[in-house]
Design goal:
By secondary structure, the chain is an alpha+beta fold. It has three domains: 9-49 and 376-525, Neutral Protease, domain 2 (Orthogonal Bundle); 69-272, tricorn interacting facor f3 domain (Immunoglobulin-like, Sandwich), CATH 2.60.40.1730; 275-374, Neutral Protease, domain 2. The protein has ten helices and 23 strands. It has helices at residues 12-22, 35-47, 297-317, 358-367, 384-402, 404-424, 441-463, 465-479, 486-496, 498-508, and strands at residues 69-76, 82-92, 99-105, 116-124, 127-128, 131-134, 139-148, 153-163, 179-181, 184-188, 193-194, 197-198, 207-208, 225-234, 238-241, 244-252, 255-265, 269-273, 277-283, 286-292, 325-331, 337-340, 343-347. Helix content is 30%, strand content 28%. Strand 16 and strand 17 form a beta hairpin. Strands 5-4-8-2-1-14-17-16 form an eight-stranded mixed sheet, with no helix packed on it. Helix 6 crosses helix 7 (441-463), helix 7 (441-463) packs antiparallel against helix 10 (498-508) and helix 8 (465-479) crosses helix 9. The radius of gyration is 23 Å and the shape is globular.
């Protein structure tokens, strides 16, 4: 998720400075004439002693074991008001505790999503299972016929109907994450999603994650899973979805059925419009596709280039993007952005009114494909973990594409000025807080994004370029496809420089032990 308009580079003088100075010092490896220089850089990196950023040394999947697997079927009504769905979910117990029940999240029922989620039937291993709604109908508890022990799996079948909100006469300034608005239909987590189980301090004292979040930040917290999804849609709808499209079959003159598959994903997401236009290009073997509405072709093609460039920069810095496709689409989310697995959305206003902010929004969201999708964290209680790093990653992109001067201006105007203003108003706050602890949205965004990015800037200045890059690569390699806590990030930093790791965390984050335990379950535990 990206920063509000108030925290962006908006000064014409600064913009002109970026254009005048930054573009002349762009990294040659990302231009048409930079192939030989790029190869030279790769060879130099190989000789530098850095641990490679690829995952060839260790297979991160080997440590994951069995993961949840979803087989989902859904159909949309012709008026796009109702979604009828069913899912078969293979659920492994990856915790040390026995599970006497399961919890599935019904994210569309959150107040800021405004959907109506009705579970019709639940079975476990073929037998009807009792269930109850929890947390204002944003979850269900499913009773198991017998305890599910560590390492065991069970099969759950669920069917449901979802009433999709239609937001009426929205203007382009509206922010709608779920439902029909402005010719777009957005359907994040339209299915029951297995909740994350969080172990407690003693045996059998764990709990299921039931946070409801707010409209300020991200709401979804998920295990890495595999998906096979079959969706029947009105034939005029053009879907943008997670995973690879395997087949598309015309059912009749009004309906089409699509089938998608993805092996390693935090969720399955689908977004659509009957007016999308698109174009694609290749970036390091990944097919990058941009979708836009008529009249926005110039911006739609520009964001395609920005996305491809960011994928290349981040792959070089952090480690390879592991999926065959990455998609970006316009959406009814004003001038903001929102990340999903293998997809991100950009507010429709970025394609015209705020066109000058399109690039910075896009590259922040691309970074989330590493920091939130691959390396995952609790977005409600620990939002700075992914948002701060995704935000700082945009500086890395600016250095590579626009040059050092542009990156320096970005850091100063986008983060330092904002944090200084909070300090001057005595509104500074600790980074390590849940979303709900911040007094208002402005403070939340200034601290989590601005101060969070400056924390990583401080790490880089303290460690130096080589060690900082090593830290990011190790962090990805060690925690790819897992769920992390701030303690894990501290451990990764200690692995590079134990002397300064605790000093930096104490100064910027605060003593981790002073906060309530946030010992999030990992799939390897």
């Amino acid at each position: 998720m990206s920063l509000p308009q108030s925290l962006l580079l908006t000064s014409p003088k600064v913009e002109e400075s970026v254009k005048r100075r930054g573009t002349r010092t762009a990294h040659p490896a990302y231009g048409a004439l930079g192939i030989s220089l790029l190869l030279l850089l790769i060879l130099l990196a190989a000789c530098s002693g850095l641990r490679p950023s690829t995952v060839e040394e260790e297979d991160p999947l080997a440590a994951l074991g069995t993961m949840p697997h979803y087989e989902i079927e859904f159909s949309l009504s012709d008026d796009l008001i109702f979604l009828q769905g069913s899912a078969r979910v293979r659920v492994p117990n990856t915790s040390a505790d026995p599970w006497t029940h399961l919890v599935f999240r019904l994210y569309p029922a959150l107040p800021h999503y405004n959907g109506e989620f009705s579970i019709q039937n639940v079975t476990v291993e073929g037998s009807t299972a009792p269930f109850t709604y929890l947390e204002q109908n944003s979850a269900i508890r499913v009773e198991l016929p017998r305890a599910l022990l560590r390492g065991q799996t069970t099969n759950v079948y669920l069917s449901w109907q979802l009433r999709i909100p239609h937001w009426g006469a929205d203007t382009t300034g509206a922010y709608r994450l779920f439902g029909l608005s402005q010719e777009f239909l957005s359907l994040p987590l339209f299915y029951p999603s297995l909740a994350v189980y969080m172990p407690g301090p003693t045996a059998a004292s764990g709990r299921w994650w039931l946070e409801r979040g707010t409209s300020r930040g991200d709401a979804a917290f998920n295990y890495i899973s595999s998906f096979v999804v079959t969706g029947t849609l009105p034939i005029d709808q053009i879907p943008v979805a997670s995973g690879q499209l395997i087949t598309s079959t015309v059912i009749d003159d009004q309906h089409i059925q699509h089938r998608w598959e993805t092996e390693l994903s935090r969720e399955f997401f689908v977004h659509m419009s009957n007016r999308f236009q698109s174009d694609s290009l290749d970036a390091y073997g990944t097919r990058v596709t941009s979708y836009w509405l008529p009249g926005h072709e110039e911006a739609g093609r520009a964001v395609l280039q920005h996305t491809a460039a960011a994928l290349r920069v981040y792959s070089d810095w952090f480690g390879p993007y592991p999926y065959p496709e990455l998609r970006v689409a316009s959406a009814p989310i004003s001038f903001r952005g929102m990340e999903y697995p293998q997809v991100f959305l950009l507010g429709v206003q970025l394609y015209d009114r705020y066109r000058d902010q399109l690039e910075i929004r896009a590259v922040h969201e691309v970074a989330h494909q590493w920091w939130y999708q691959l390396v995952h964290n609790d977005p409600v209680n620990q939002p700075w973990v992914d948002e701060g790093l995704a935000e700082y990653s945009s500086r890395i992109y600016y250095e590579a594409v626009h040059g050092q001067d542009a990156a320096d201006i970005l850091e100063y105007r986008r983060w330092q000025v904002v944090v200084d203003a909070l300090i001057s108003r005595e509104e500074d706050a600790a980074l390590a807080q849940p979303v709900t602890a911040f007094a208002n949205g402005s403070i939340y965004e200034g601290i989590v994004y601005g101060k969070g990015a400056l924390f990583f800037s401080a790490i880089r200045r303290t460690l130096g370029e080589r060690a900082f890059k090593q830290f990011l690569q190790n962090y990805l390699t060690d925690y790819q496809y897992k769920i992390v806590t701030p303690e894990d990030m501290l451990a990764a930093l200690r692995g590079v420089d134990p002397e300064f790791a605790d000093m930096l965390f104490t100064e910027w984050i605060g003593p981790l032990a002073s906060r309530p335990p946030q010992d999030t379950a990992r799939q390897t535990e």
